[in-house]
Amino acid sequence: MIAIILGTRPEIIKMAPVIRACEKENIEYHLIHTGQHYSYEMDKIFFQELELPKADYNLDVGSGTHGEQTAKILTGIEKILIKERYGRNDMVLVEGDTNTVFAGALAASKLHVKVGHVEAGLRSYFRDMPEEINRILTDHISDYLFAPTENSKKILLSEGFEKEKIFVTGNTIVDSVYQNIEIAEKKVGVFEKFGIERKNYFLVTAHRAENVDVVERLTGIIGGLNLIYDEFRIPIIFPIHPRTKKMIEKFNIKLNENIQLIKPLGFLEFLQLEANAKLVLTDSGGVQEEACILKVPCVTLRDNTERPETVEVGGNLLAGCDPNVIFDKVNLMINRDRSWSNPFGDGKSGEKIIRIIEGN
Ligand code: UD1
Ligand code: UDP
Question: Is residue 288 predicted with pLDDT exceeding 90?
């Protein structure tokens, strides 16, 4: 049996192609939701839009400190794997670098259940990020390392991982983008909804704990957006992650009224906004990838990235959180030729991963 574990917005979006591949090949699996994300717009909307089956289990762990969340997921997943009699011939699949991923992988590996890590081998080399700890530890307890690119494979090899465990599959985000971009253009109309025109607005997301939980960095990001508005005078659309909303309120940060703070969007609306943006500013991992795939210039509000491929092909620049640097990088990026190539694969990663697991 295969247990597919997910718990947050990006995991739902990036596991969808793997789930679809299981359905297509009639492979039996359990779908386990940890409930790390639970608000409608961070969770259920993606199940509806991507037409995913209801999870067989939902642990409802909710929010909490890293220790609390990780511990609840660990004990919850362990119970399910024991109840469902998972053993050495079975596999748990996790995707990415969240607390759900590490705790799910740890529960499985202690029960000698094989672990498959989708999106293995990413490194920011910045251990202040909780995700860096999660991804390194998960790689180490995995039996199948599904590296999205040759670069991530190289990283794993350089850290001493056995080459027999590493499979370059592309990133399943390409599958999700390709499978949904046309549906998005047909089904949703963000331009009328937000009163904007194609190619004439900036799109922003920010939620990294090391950015938005630190008042100087969050203020720096907002300061950068204000400078950009003063220069370009076009709408800045900012679908706001619940963590960021909480911190803006806590720090009592005042935003320029020209920055449109809106609720987090579903995948279809977000994709349509992203594909037609003049430029994207983000600290998200998935959004850096999507902008690169969609050939939309990206400025990353971080000092490092575990997606260096986006920078190498010419689709992304790192800016950190200094307003003047953000402003300069936007000006550099905005006129760049968009003819870079997508480094994340051909959109068949979900099927490739399932074929590898099935030994075909
Ligand atoms: C988590 C992941 C991060 C990932 C992100 C995707 C970890 C350590 N972090 O960060 O890697 O990039 O998800 O979005 O696993 N909240 C809600 N509703 C929800 C979920 C959260 O209101 O459905 C609020 C709560 O106030 C919560 C806060 O957001 O305390 C942060 O949620 P949490 O899951 O701890 O971390 P994220 O910042 O979402
Ligand atoms: N996303 C979305 N609605 C939004 C913002 C993001 O559907 O309002 C999607 C986006 O398309 C991408 C994923 O969420 O696929 C990225 O998730 P997030 O930024 O929360 O996490 P990260 O990728 O940084 O782990």
Answer: yes
